[in-house]
Structure formats: structure tokens, C-alpha cells
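ingest -> validate -> predict -> emit
validate: passed (alphabet ok, no gaps, 232 aa)
predict: started
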Amino acid sequence: MDPLKGTHPVQRTTRTLTTAALTAGILLWGGWSASEMRAQAPAPRTAPATMPLKGTWTIDPFHSNVSFAIKHMGLATIRGRFDEFAGTIVADSDHPEKASVQVTIKTASIDTDIPARDEHLRNPDFFDAAKYPEITFRSSRVEKTQNGFVAHGTLVMHGVSREVSLPFRLGGPVKDPRAGSRLGVETRVRLNRQDYGLKYHQVLDNGVLALANDVNVAISLEAVPAKSAEAK
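emit:
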């Protein structure tokens, strides 16, 4: 027989909830203690053990990316990347002032997944890849901060050199079965394309730029010890 049969729906719901609460209480106090119940939960994952961060590292292009995003007509965000790049990181976690980084990007490798647009970006309206085949960054000093590190150095693009500061975070190093060890570096920065002579300028009827001046750049790199890279 249903003990709740004939009762009002609200009363049935209230009694059901009360029964569930009492059952939970019995399980908690008469069966499982709070600590015992917590013990049944999966143990939290522990971070992999890291190794000392020193030496010269080479960027692994197969597990790295250099990407950018820019606003089009004030509406959509257009995203792209550079597919060809290389670089070296000299690391010293005990003495950041001895660290350095240099990266070279092949301008013609720009890729927005639209071939016709990519060709336009390679021509003199934008990067003029034939005349300026490379974009480079070379640090002059590296400093440690509360949130990670900052690499101060010179960015050269479209024949223009400007001093920039790249805040970045390190991951690892961790053991790698093939390379021996591996580290990660991530940085984000906002650049004004006009500062580097990318002067393409079209204004819409509403006064909005067809192509925004600000470009958001995101770089995510993995690197392996230089000797491991040379052995491949």
C-alpha cells in the first residue's frame, strides 16, 4: 500500500523530500562518516614532477603555434597564424638575467584559411613578404615577476624595429620519452599594426575601420633541449 496515496501533491513532495533527507542522515551518521565518504572520491591529480630549468632549448614547431586575431569592420574577429617559425630559448631558473629568447617567423607562411586573402596579406598593402621575409624577436633581458616572467627585447616586422615587453609563463620542464625533457612557454600581447608600417587604411561610411589597428597575438611554444632537436 502506498502510504502517501490520497494526499495532496505538495504533501507528497514534502514527505518524499523529508524521507530522502532522513535516509541521507542515517547513511551519514550510522553508516559512512563524512571522512569515509570523502575517501571514496577520486584522489586529486598531482602535477608532474618538474626538473631543473637550465640550458639551451629549441622550439618544437610541431607542438607550437603563433596566432593572431583582428577585428573586421567592427563586427567579426578574423583569426590567422604563421606556419613557419623557429627559435631558441636559453633558460636559467636560478638566474633569469642570464636567460634569453629569439624567434624568427617566416612572413610568407601567414595562413588565415582563405588563400586569396593570404595572398593579399603577403603583398605590399600589408606585410610585403618578398621585401620583408622575416619577423624577428630577440630579447635583451628577462626578468622574473610575481606572475611569471617578462622578456624585454626588439621586435622587427615590416622593416620596423620597436622595443616590446612580452609577459610569459613557463610550464615544466617535464620528462619526455623521446627528447629527454620538454618545456612550455605562453605569451599574449596586443600590437598596433600602424606602428610597424602596415598602413592599409579603409574607413567605412559609419566611420569604423575596415580592418582594426589593434592585433591580438598569442604564442604558445613547446621546446626541447637543443641537442635532442639536432639529433632528429
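Confidence is low (pLDDT under 50) at residues 1-5, 7-50.
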